[in-house]
Write a structure and sequence with these properties.
This protein has strands at 17-28, 32-43, 52-61, 66-69, 73-76, 83-92, 99-110, 122-123, 131-136, 139-144, 158-163, 175-186. It is mainly β. The strands form 2 sheets. A 7-stranded antiparallel β-sheet has the order 5-2-1-12-7-10-9, with no helix packed on it.
């Protein structure tokens, strides 16, 4: 296994803003995997400044559990049943207002012949202790159970990805993608929990 790590670069948004962060993860069976991150910002009517980052980390020392923040992650020779470190969390920036946070995870698998595979073979274990799952019209969202204060990080929502051993030979050279979308809205005057908060933007279907 080879890994190539780039240091994370953060974008600051100093405005009345709600930040939508997208993270794409690419995992392949017996081939390559690419882990990338893209941030975008959408202005909304709110108070103070909402400024979050979707953070990706990987374990660099399994013995000590040491992690490192990365932007791009490259793995060669990923095989079925292999666990790949993939830690996803949300960070609230310095001087930002307290924020309610929610995250959506979408999975897909495309076989080598271009056909759609069974995305359930791409296994992750969401943290449902610190996050609460709720089915919405546009999919399942995970709501962080407490306000995220300035300069704080959430407890990770997920920590690894496994390409299931249940897939047959047709999954050789398959490409799997995990899209992680994080959203934040203000805490002030906006509900007692993230589940009660208003102002979450509607995600357009692709």
């Amino acid at each position: 296994m080879q890994r190539k790590v780039k240091k994370d670069m953060k974008k600051k948004v100093f405005s009345l803003a709600l930040v939508i962060c997208c993270l794409a993860v690419f995992l392949t069976s017996s081939t390559l995997a690419y882990f990338t991150k893209e941030d975008t910002a959408t202005n909304v009517i709110t108070t103070g400044k909402i400024d979050i980052d979707l953070v990706e980390k990987v374990v660099v020392d399994p013995e000590t559990g040491e992690t490192e923040t990365v932007e791009d992650f490259y793995v060669e020779g990923v095989m079925p049943g292999q666990e790949v470190s993939k830690i996803v969390l949300v960070e609230n920036e310095q001087y930002a207002e307290d924020a309610w946070v929610r995250v959506k995870i979408t999975k897909s698998i495309v076989l080598a012949d271009g056909k759609e595979g069974d995305s359930s073979l791409l296994e992750i274990k969401p943290n449902t202790t610190d996050w609460t799952a709720r089915d919405e019209a546009d999919g399942t969202w995970y709501y962080y159970n407490k306000p995220l204060k300035s300069e704080e990080e959430t407890v990770p929502l997920m920590e690894n990805v496994v390409f299931s051993v249940k897939g047959g030979n047709e999954y050789q050279e398959a490409k799997a993608e995990i899209y992680v979308l994080a959203q934040a809205v203000q805490v002030k005057n906006n509900g007692a929990t993230a589940l009660e908060a208003k102002g979450w933007p509607v995600v357009a279907e692709e």
